[in-house]
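Q: How would the C-alpha cells look for this protein?
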Amino acid sequence: MTVLEVSDVRRSFGGIHAVQGVSFALGEQEILGIIGPNGSGKSTLFNLLTGLVRAGSGKVRLLGRDITGWKPHRIARAGMGRTFQIPALFVNMTVQENLYAAAVEGDWKTARQRTGQVLDLMTLGDLRNELASTLSGGQQRLLEFARVLMRDPQVILLDEVTAGVHPTLRQVILDAITRLRSEGRSFLVIEHDMELVRAVCERVIVMDAGQVVAHGSFDEIAADKSVVEAYLGVPTQ
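A: Here is the predicted structure in C-alpha cell form.
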C-alpha cells in the first residue's frame, strides 16, 4: 500500500528552481531516506509536503487523499507529522506540558496515557517536569520527535533528527524509528549521517539542484557516479 505519493512537484523562488519535478512513492511501513548536498532542495521538499510552502505545480496524495494546496494544520490532522532542523519548542514550558500542548486538538481524554507512553519511548520520563529550555540539544530533538508522536501520525518526516546528537540519544531515536515502523508508521528521513541511512532506510533518494538524481538501495546509490558528482560538485571520470 502506498501511503504518500508525490507526483512531479515543483517550486521556484524567483530564478531559483528549488524543487524540479520530484516524484516518488512511500510504502506502508517503509523508511525512505532523502540525501543530498546542502541546498539540494531536501528541506524545501518537506515544506511543500507539509503545506508550509505551496507547490507551483504537481500533486501530493496522503493516505489516498489529494492534499495538494492544503494548509499545514489540515495536513497534520490528515496524518502527517514532521520535525525541523531546529526544534521549535515551547521553551518556557515543561517537557510534559509541551506534549500536552501537542495533544490539544487530538483525543484529549487519552492525552495523559499517551504522554506517559511517548515519554518512555523517548527516555524522557525523568525530565517530564524540566523546562524545555534546560534540555541539551539532543534532548530537545527527542522532545520535538515526541511532540510529533502525540498527534499519532501515520507518515512521519524527520529532518536531520540526529544532527549533533550524543551517540546514546542517537540510539534512542533509531530504536524509536524501528519500533514505530513495526507498529505501522512510515518515514521520510532527511539525513547527512550515512551510517544511519544505511542502518534504517530500505530505499534512498538522492537530490541535487532540486532534482532526484538517483534512487535505490544504499549500496546502489553509493556506487552511482552521479551521486559522487553531486556531493563533490565535479564530474566523475
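The chain has a mean pLDDT of 92.

The two ends are 40 Å apart (CA to CA).

Upvote if useful.
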